[in-house]
């Protein structure tokens, strides 16, 4: 049966912060927790109710903090535990909850557990990780890491390999070992007692791995582990839990987001994010087919209606900037950013805004030396060795590199976009002179003001949360149109997803329809202008 208490995250919008690139306050060029506290009033103005923080735990930063060396300590580069507790308290004063990023599939190789585990095969921590006997140069199988190269790392002293789905400095934790699970649940409860509002769970569908059978995602014991974790910690509460599940299907998501609270609140599924990928590697792209995108997003809306809950997002710290990928970051940047926001925020689920998305920040094209991300740098080496042309590799980086999302937040047109007084850890996008928060907070027709309206509407109008979704014009190659229905109320969303002016077939907008918002001041009858989006409210 459904959980009883009102779930705050059902009419909330969540904002994702990549702390390293958000706001620096001590001049070391790296964003910090004090910087987030300094910007809470801005986030309160935007109207968001939760902040998902990418990891700020102690870490050697091999994968920018997704390699955790101590789950219960804050890395000095971000500040102190007192800063973290202050952020939680200051957030509460503004009705904003803090959601931390839990990386439970792997730890850093500098975590004390792994340091112990490597000492000997009979060390009590040895089977906290996944080891296989072997001989040098002959890994147990040909599984590869997501960050290029083999997923097996040789330890000569032990004559063993350890398994790592990501970098070799991110050894996979062995969830088959009950002691590992118990330690992780203790840590989760420890953080819950600190007053957090939720967790994002990193690659959580990879924890039930069976490497001998080459199984990583959706392993046989996955839901058993998740149910046990929920029961021991956050289950049945109004704690927001969102799992990152690249391999989710609607059927699996019904389990993950079962309203009975037995697993998570929701998951990030990535089916819509894979549609412009050409083949098995993210670096090879093809044009996005709008009809396919509409089919996929509608399938998820229909499947989880009154059975589960969707997360809604276009981008995050791993993905290129939405306006560059799905819109037009040159001529129609403002219109297309607003169109994408309208199409996403009209749907049922919890929307996520990634830092900078609300002001239409764009991708970058840097010299190789300006990039920082291990995934991208390893791919560059691997493809160079395979003989790929330099220009083709760089084009893949420009289109899909994770660093597109990690350039510093653009606060103003001052030095380094107001992100730091020092030298930023990563180069600021040169377009910060035009694209920044300070300017857009004042402009009536800015992308920021548009997002503020969308966030506000979701809180004020129950139809955004409860209305049934219905796709319109399913086969139209340019128009994304749908409605939401709740009793005698209707929301109608009509969007031209492309940059050419098109005839708009008659979607009988009743006379008394009230236009809630649009990205053009003037309408042309029977026509949708480039990237034009409109949202109507109709009372029948
Ligand atoms: O990402 C999981 C993941 O698979 C992504 O790295 C994805 O493969 C790729 O980035 C697509 O562009 C999570 C975190 O979000 C990511 O930042 C971490 O690097 C990764 O797990 C390992 O913790
Ligand atoms: Ca700093």
From TrEMBL:
Gene3D superfamilies in the cross-refs: Glycosidases (3.20.20.80), Golgi alpha-mannosidase II (2.60.40.1180), Oligo-1,6-glucosidase, Domain 2 (3.90.400.10)
Superkingdom of the organism of origin: Bacteria
SUPFAM superfamilies, per the entry: (Trans)glycosidases, Glycosyl hydrolase domain
Record-linked CDD domains: AmyAc_SI_OligoGlu_DGase
Protein's UniProt keywords contain NADP: no
InterPro entries, sorted: GH (IPR017853), GH13_cat_dom (IPR006047), Glyco_hydro_b (IPR013780), O16G_dom_2 (IPR045857)
Pfam family, one: Alpha-amylase
Residues of the Glycosyl hydrolase family 13 catalytic domain: 16-406
UniProt record, GO biological process: oligosaccharide catabolic process
A molecular-function term among this protein's GO annotations: alpha-amylase activity
Keywords: Glycosidase, Hydrolase
Keyword Manganese: no
PANTHER family, per the entry: ALPHA-AMYLASE FAMILY MEMBER, NEUTRAL AND BASIC AMINO ACID TRANSPORT PROTEIN RBAT
Family named by the database record: Belongs to the glycosyl hydrolase 13 family.
Name of the protein described by the UniProt record: Alpha-glucosidase
